[in-house]
Each structure stands twice: as structure tokens, then as C-alpha cells.
Fold this sequence. Notes:
Blueprint: H1 3-22, H2 24-39, E1 45-51, H3 58-66, E2 68-76, E3 93-95, E4 107-113, H4 122-130, E5 133-144, H5 150-154, E6 177-191, H6 194-203, H7 216-230, E7 237-250
Parallel strand pairs: 1-2, 1-4, 2-3, 4-5
Antiparallel strand pairs: 5-7, 6-7
Helix pairs in contact: 2-3
Amino acid sequence: MSLPHARVARAFRRGLPSYHDAARVQAMSAQRLAEMLAADGAGPRIGRALEFGCGTGLLTRALHRRFAFDAFETNDLVSEARDHLPGDLRPAFRPGPIEGLPLHGAYDLIASGATIQWIADPAALLARLSRHLAPGGRLLIGGFGRGHFAELAALAAPAPLFYADPAEWPALLPPGLVLRAAERRREVLGFDDLPQLLRHLRATGVTGNARAGWGRGAMREAERRWRAEHGLADGRLGLSYVSVHLVIGIAPQGQA
């Protein structure tokens, strides 16, 4: 496991017990991904599926509420994620980085929510996954766009590896794949103070790429700046979530 993988794994392993309740935006994103997949004409029954970066199963459950599956495999960087999945799905769970996970055969659906931003080379991963799509298969990807956690960037805090808006995604796709549906949604959460905001980040594991913290004096100054530059109308500190939802499919003949 590379150093970035190890760092991300530590953060998400620490956040697993709190993630399911704290990840409010990620839960809404999972529901929206399932809606978009249905609107694209998938289901109501899907053959073989793989979900990578399943975490505590937010997208797993959203998909199973809407679709039936002949087979559903799950993966996460953190092996303990298995224990947070529905019992009948645990035997098909495989831990480890998706970039090197052995894949066999073809899938009708490869899905992931709130994981692609931690991938060092998303284009390479998409190319790899595309080779395991069955005819008519789809990739369902939830990530984050430009401006996500912009307030953190303004304070020079480290960010995850990859943010991209829908308009940037076609250039990342390998030949033979096209965007079938894409959207960008922004939501701002409010927090009473900076410690509360940072606890929220830790609870969702999103500080996995952070390399430094704030001392007490730096914390006070950071909160003062945050309130001045990103305060909400009710006086709380704002934190922007910019979600990107994508349905990717195999290009029609002549379009690849």
C-alpha cells in the first residue's frame, strides 16, 4: 500500500464508526446517483455489479432500494468496511486499493460514490474499469467538483487529490466511453465554530490527505478569518460541498 493509500486508510478507518451519520451530503449524493441511473434506463434488474469505495454502504443501500441484482460485489480500501454492509453482501466484499484489485469478467454496472477524488490517476482507473464493462454496461460515479471545500483551500489546508467539474470529464474518459448524464450540485453546511467543523471532517474521513494541523493560536486566527470571509447569514461558518454525479456508458458504434 502506498503512502497516500496508507494515509487515507488511517483517516477512513478512524472515521468509519461516525461516517454513516455524519456524511449527510454523501448520503444525498448516493440517493441522487441511484435516481440518475434509473432515469438513464437501467434496471429494474441489473446483472453483475461492482461497487468500489463502498465505505459504510450509503450508495450500496441506495442502489439496492431501487434495483435488484444478480450479483453485487463490493470493495473498499479499508477492510473493516465489510462489517458496515448488509449481511448478505459481506461474503462478496474484497478489500484493497481499487487500482490493483484483481477483476475478472464483465460487469453490467461499476459504481462508486465519494471515492474518485482520492484516486491519484483517475483516467488510468477509468481505462482499466472500461475493459471490464459488459455490452450496454455503465459506470456510475459520484465525486466532487471545483469549489468543493473552497474554504479549506483558502486557508491553504491540504485537499484530496482530484476535483473535476462535469465539463472536464469527457477528457478523462478512455476511447469507447461517453457521458450519458452529468450534473453538479452545490450545498453549504453551517458550523458553530471551527472545532465543530473539523470534527465533522474527521467524522467523514475527508482529512485523509492532510499533513498538518493547527495549534491553538492558529485555530483562533483561522476561525476569525473563516468567519470574516465565509460566514453565513446566521453567523455560522460555511463549508461548501460541490457534488458531481455521472452516468458513463459505452459509446454507440461510430461515436467512439
